[in-house]
Amino acid sequence: MHGNAEKLLHDLHKLTVELEKSVKGTAGNWVGEAGDRMRARLARTREKISAIEAEVRGSLQDGVDATDHYVRANPWQSVGIAAAVAFVVGALVSRRD
Questions:
Q1: CA dihedral 16, 21, 25, 30 (to 10 degrees)
Q2: Structure confidence at residue 43 (pLDDT)
Q3: Does the pTM of the predicted model rise above 0.70?
Q4: Residue 53, Cβ neighbours under 10 Å: how many?
Q5: Could you tell me the residue ranges of all domains in the chain?
Q6: C-alpha count within 13 angstroms, C-beta hemisphere, residue 21
Q7: What does 16-61 look like in DSSP terms, one character per residue?
Q8: I want to staple 71 with a disulfide (CB 3.0 to 4.6 A). Which of 17, 66, 78, 82 is the partner?
Q9: pLDDT tens digits for range 20-58
């Protein structure tokens, strides 16, 4: 999950940078309100992406912290849960063959 969120945020950032380059190349030739509106909209989009990125990173960190706290407080239960999950996954994989 963490890797997918990171990849999505990276892709959104990359898309924004590409859009900025494109707008600078084309909107630079535009005069007046149209170019200003494009630049303003792109700036708002970048701000929204930054806000979403901060929120996702915070949520992921909260999940990591909660998991770490649970495992440290309940080590044997965590081992039991991991063993049960491994057993179920192993049973499902062996059925597919």
A1: 30
A2: 80
A3: no
A4: 17
A5: 2-96
A6: 6
A7: HHHHHHHHHHHHTT--THHHHHHHHHHHHHHHHHHHHHHHHHHHHH
A8: 78
A9: 777 666 645 555 677 777 778 878 888 888 888 888 888
